[in-house]
Each structure stands twice: as C-alpha cells, then as structure tokens.
C-alpha cells in the first residue's frame, strides 16, 4: 500500500518534462499549434541540444516570447524562422534547409548508399563470371593433380 | 596489396575527419551577421537614461560593441582586456548592458573601471536578439561602412585581443 502511494506521488513529478513556464494566450488554435511547432523545431543556442520548448535558459525564454509576439502580430511561421535564422544562423534549425551549404548533409547518406550499392552489384557480378584462366596453365594444373592422385 | 590499401585509406580518411571534428568547438556558432549591416538600435544611455544613443551616431567610423552585464562572471575576467583596448585609443568602445539592473551595472563600472565611451541599456535583451547574442560577453567590431566585420563570442583574452580583434581593427582603420 505504502509503495503504491509512493509510486503515485512520484508519478506527479514526471508529468511535465517541458520547461516552458510562461503561459501565453492565443487568439486561435492554429496560432497555438504554430507556436508549439516552432518552439519544438527551433534550437536553443545556450543549451545546444535542447529545443526552445525544452530549455530553461533565459535566452530560450526570450526567444519563446519573441516567437509568441511575432505570431500575435500576424507573422507566419516561415517569417519567424527567417527572423531566427537571420540572427543566429542555420544552427537554430533542427532541420537545416536544403541549400548549397547543406547539399552534402542532405544528400551524403544517399550518396554513400549509392556507392555501397554500386560496390555490391560489382562484387556480385564478378562472383558470377567464370574465372578467366590461361588454358595451358589449367591443363598443367590438372596434370599435377592427376599425378598426385596416382601416387596415392 | 591493393586489398588492404583501399580499406586502409578509407580508415585513415575517417580518422582524419573525426579528429578534425573533435577539434571544433561546438559552442562557437558562426554568426550570419558577419559583413551584414549592424542591426540598428536606439537605446538610452546607462549614465544618463534621458539621452539616447543609436547606431547612426557611429556612422562612418570604426567602433566596437561589447556586450556585458554585471551578473556575468566572465565579463569581469574580460574587463581588464577591454580596458587594455580602450587605453590604445584606437576606436570607440560602446557597452551594451545586456539584461541587467542599471543600478547594479553602474556600481559594477564604478568598482572595476569604465572603458566604454558610453554604455546603452538593453533591459529586455531585444537588441541582443537582433545582434544574435547568445552568450555574454560578446564583442563586435563594426566597420566605417556600418557592417559587422568581426564577432568574438565569450570573453576576449589578451591573446585573442592581440591576434584577432586588434588586427581586424587596424586593418579597418587602414
């Protein structure tokens, strides 16, 4: 009984792992959804492996406020993202954009896969082909083998 | 021989790449603002809140913006270096007092000395956001054309002053 109570009590502490403490009121459910999506997608610069939603850093709070206010002013999520990228660079995006500096990042895995496929296909083809051996040497080898057998 | 050469080459290349990656500092995020016009601000001065100072006041000259706060521990370490730069009398150094209490900030300057031509108050950190500030202290060098030429993240040490900041300033001054 005691342990059940304790477990129940402890479970209250893990209800929310999000550090967002500010309460914002939104004009529409869409705006709220946009806000939630943005703070999930944008990366905090102070705690670099957290998003804005999960970070308790002062800067993350400021950027959440900035995000909220921009949405309230009628800006689109893309405009918010442009705002952040203009100031903090591509780093703030968990999903970097597809442009000249990120081609390798986006295409790299597929290039590696392609290279591996080409390699495997070539190996398989080579394995299927009859081995090209000089006829004279083959006859010589056969002779040697036969001699070996007659000796036994 | 060739059987070993190829995997070995790939292995060595991988090691090289990973060793290079280990040496990079992930805390250093390159600023997209380099060579872009310095974000404009118009903020009240710490010394006299009734007076405002704006980026336009520095048009046509090379200047340095140093982001600092009294709560920032590494700013204190950096302060001696900023004073060193001020003593050279090469450029105006403007302090951006970031998310601080004016009373604390003034006391901090009284205690540790004031190398700034002026400090402006960014109480809510909005100008900081415009300048892409994410770790105080940060130091920017702005050219006579109004563009940010260099950004130093974290405390400027004597070494980085001599090797990075001063060469940039001297080159801009011509």
Q: What are the defining features of this structure?
A:
heterodimer, A: 152 residues, mainly alpha, Helicase, Ruva Protein, domain 3, 2 domains, 6 helices, elongated, B: 174 residues, alpha/beta, Glutaredoxin, five-stranded mixed sheet, two-stranded antiparallel ribbon, 5 helices
The CA-CA distance between the termini of chain B, in Å, is: 58 Å
Largest interface: A-B, 15 and 18 residues
Largest sheet of chain A: none
Number of helices of chain A: 6
| CATH homologous superfamily grouping of chain B | Glutaredoxin
Proportion of residues in β-strands of chain B: 15-25%
What is the terminal separation of chain A in angstroms?
Answer: 84 Å
Poorly predicted sequence stretches spanning 5 or more consecutive residues of chain B: none
Compute the gyration radius of chain A: what is it? 32 Å
Oligomer: heterodimer
Q: What fraction, in percent, of the residue positions of chain A are helical?
A: 55-70%
State the total count of DSSP E strands of chain B.
7
CATH topology of chain B: Glutaredoxin
Radius of gyration of chain B: 20 Å
Silhouette of chain B: elongated
The run of helices and strands of chain B is HEEEHEHEHEEH
